[in-house]
């Protein structure tokens, strides 16, 4: 199953990478996560996170709903998602009540925490009241990951029979809303390059004299939500537009396989050539690997593979990632940013656990130093950036912690999660919700509870301590934390590539637990078979690693990766992974 053409380069790359990292960094705790002591801790911590979520959610409903986000200190609201098209019309700004952003962002978290009653109440309200026919200029990227992603994911959860909505018949209202929104996105793609404008007015399309400047993430992180919308509606326009933009963006890479941070969508020229894995670029990388998992297209895998190698070669410095010029590969800014903390989570997807672990430790070191992660930290001077000193309740460190725990089952990651929970409660909890931190050196607060605190921060912390939602299911989480199922009907490589005789299946609850999405790598799921009602998952090709923590002595201890259906091998650090093909 190996790609023979890549084998030699891959071996050399991995050999160098592993020589650079001390094996002591990967030592797993000898305490088993199945120990009753840890089970009790998981229960306690999951309840604590649930309380945090509801403190944020209830306060939003009381003081801010249906506006976009809560201002927890003044107990008021902000319509942060969009700018009103004509601010001079006083009466219009009074009429506008926002897009219920935090409610939409909370939908999948409600299901994951098992509150189907509240989920249904929210679905009903949105079905009856939400409209996108408003004169509001929104950022395409933000609206896509938060609103479109939130609606598409919630639609799938609402139609999943395990969630049993009881109050009224669900008539695909969320999908209709998502489709309406998707149509309002399409004018943004009407450029000479196919790269979308960063801003679009929901009622009137792209405004006259709209800026042509956008970011790499803005063009390259649309494929999951718009692809899913196309698969659900049968209208291919959304996926085609997102794919065209992604391909164009990829064609603009340098000979080093690096991309810049900002570009002009009309000329297709780069505006900012320096880039890294943080702001303006982060989710571009994330979506290449996740799109491969969700849709099974080799094209995404090939892009990711080249991009990943470029990052590791030109941005990485030990456990840190700096910025570099896409044309020369020369280092530009030596800064750690809070957004970069998602990267170890992406590395877990390709089995690069060792590198993930070492970076994660550095992010956590900085977290502990300040109590939270500063937005920007100057690596050379070991100090916080003079102006970007804030922490707006970002989820990235919790997200990586969750993925690393799933991959290794090392209870140390639960300790990290507990520390994050404690800091959030100690520094950011106020009577009216959770506030952002304006300055991590003084812990002065700022009056803003971002919706991603409910969509991501609380969700990943909850899943770290209670992953029962994932049992027997295969999900990819979008960059905003909204789950999308990995389905054979959406997966290009199925059914042609794999023979049913290679499949593994789960006939019992116990087995289904062992093949849960994260711990076993994600496998394309075959829809439930009515003749075998107890069969929870059938994966296409997956073979479990011999040990649950993915440690190994030889290749024999490693299985077949369910995501790529490629053979996993044992690295010199003693972890099973896709070492040879990168
Ligand atoms: C979220 O909106 C998403 O995770 C996005 O990709 C970037 N960061 C914010 C949260 O920090």
TrEMBL record:
SUPFAM superfamilies: Seven-hairpin glycosidases (SSF48225). It is an enzyme of class 3 (hydrolase). Keywords: Calcium, Endoplasmic reticulum, Glycoprotein, Glycosidase, Hydrolase, Metal-binding. GO terms for biological process: carbohydrate metabolic process; endoplasmic reticulum mannose trimming. It comes from the Eukaryota. GO terms for cellular component: endoplasmic reticulum quality control compartment; membrane. Its cofactor is Ca(2+). InterPro entries: 6hp_glycosidase-like_sf, EDEM1/2/3, Glyco_hydro_47, Seven-hairpin_glycosidases. Its EC number is 3.2.1.-. GO terms for molecular function: calcium ion binding; mannosyl-oligosaccharide 1,2-alpha-mannosidase activity. Coiled coil: none annotated. It is found in: Endoplasmic reticulum. The active site is at residues 142, 282, 375, 396. Pfam families: Glyco_hydro_47. Ca(2+) binds at residue 479. PANTHER family: ER DEGRADATION-ENHANCING ALPHA-MANNOSIDASE-LIKE PROTEIN 1, ER DEGRADATION-ENHANCING ALPHA-MANNOSIDASE-LIKE PROTEIN 2. Belongs to the glycosyl hydrolase 47 family. This is alpha-1,2-Mannosidase. It comes from Daucus carota subsp. sativus (Carrot).
């Amino acid at each position: 199953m190996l790609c023979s053409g890549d084998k030699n380069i891959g071996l050399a790359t991995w050999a160098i990478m592993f020589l650079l990292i001390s094996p002591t960094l990967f030592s797993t705790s000898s305490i088993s996560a199945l120990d009753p002591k840890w089970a009790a801790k998981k229960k306690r911590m999951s309840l604590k996170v649930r309380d945090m979520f509801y403190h944020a959610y209830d306060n939003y409903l009381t003081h801010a709903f249906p506006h976009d986000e809560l201002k927890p200190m003044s107990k008021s609201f902000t319509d942060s998602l969009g700018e009103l098209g004509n601010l001079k019309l006083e009466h219009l700004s009074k009429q506008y009540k926002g897009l219920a952003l935090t409610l939409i962002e909370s939908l999948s978290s409600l299901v994951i925490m098992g509150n189907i009653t509240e989920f249904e109440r929210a679905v009903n309200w949105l079905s009856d009241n939400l409209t996108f026919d408003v004169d509001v200029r929104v950022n395409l990227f933000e609206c896509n990951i938060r609103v479109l992603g939130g609606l598409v994911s919630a639609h799938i959860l609402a139609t999943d029979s395990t969630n049993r909505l009881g109050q009224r018949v669900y008539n695909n209202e969320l999908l209709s809303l998502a489709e309406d929104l998707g149509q309002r996105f399409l004018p943004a793609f009407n450029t000479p390059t196919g790269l979308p404008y960063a801003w679009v007015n929901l009622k009137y399309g792209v405004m006259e004299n709209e800026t042509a400047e956008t970011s790499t993430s803005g063009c390259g992180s649309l494929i999951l939500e718009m692809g899913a919308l196309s698969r659900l509606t049968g209208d291919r326009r959304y996926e085609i537009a997102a794919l065209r933009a992604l391909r164009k963006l990829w064609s603009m890479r340098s000979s080093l396989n690096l991309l810049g941070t900002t570009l002009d969508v009309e000329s297709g020229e780069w505006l900012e050539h320096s880039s890294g894995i943080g702001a303006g670029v982060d989710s571009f990388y994330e979506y290449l690997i996740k799109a491969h998992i969700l849709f099974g297209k080799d094209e995404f895998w090939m892009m990711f593979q080249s991009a990943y190698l470029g990052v590791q070669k030109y941005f990485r410095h030990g456990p840190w990632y700096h910025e570099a010029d896409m044309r020369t590969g020369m280092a530009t800014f030596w800064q750690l940013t809070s957004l970069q903390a998602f990267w170890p989570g992406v590395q877990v997807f390709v089995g690069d656990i060792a590198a993930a672990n070492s970076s994660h430790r550095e992010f956590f070191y900085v977290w502990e130093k300040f109590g939270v992660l500063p937005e920007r930290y100057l690596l050379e001077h070991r100090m916080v950036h003079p102006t970007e000193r804030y922490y707006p309740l970002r989820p990235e460190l919790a997200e990586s912690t969750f993925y690393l725990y799933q991959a290794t089952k090392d209870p140390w990651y639960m300790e990290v999660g507990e520390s994050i929970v404690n800091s959030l409660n100690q520094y950011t909890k106020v009577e009216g919700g959770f506030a952002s931190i304006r300055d991590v050196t003084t812990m002065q607060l700022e009056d803003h509870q971002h919706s991603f605190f409910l969509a991501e921060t609380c969700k990943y912390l909850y899943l770290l301590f209670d992953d029962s939602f994932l049992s027997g299911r295969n999900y990819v989480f979008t960059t905003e934390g909204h789950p999308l199922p990995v389905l054979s009907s959406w997966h290009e490589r199925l059914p042609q590539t794999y023979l049913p005789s290679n499949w593994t299946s789960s006939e019992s609850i116990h087995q289904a637990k062992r093949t849960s999405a994260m711990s076993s790598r994600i496998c394309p799921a075959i829809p439930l078979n009515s003749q075998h009602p107890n069969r929870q998952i059938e994966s296409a090709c997956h073979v479990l690693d011999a040990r649950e923590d993915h440690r190994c002595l030889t290749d024999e201890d490693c299985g077949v990766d369910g995501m790529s259906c490629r053979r996993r091998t044992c690295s010199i650090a003693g972890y099973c992974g896709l070492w040879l093909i990168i």
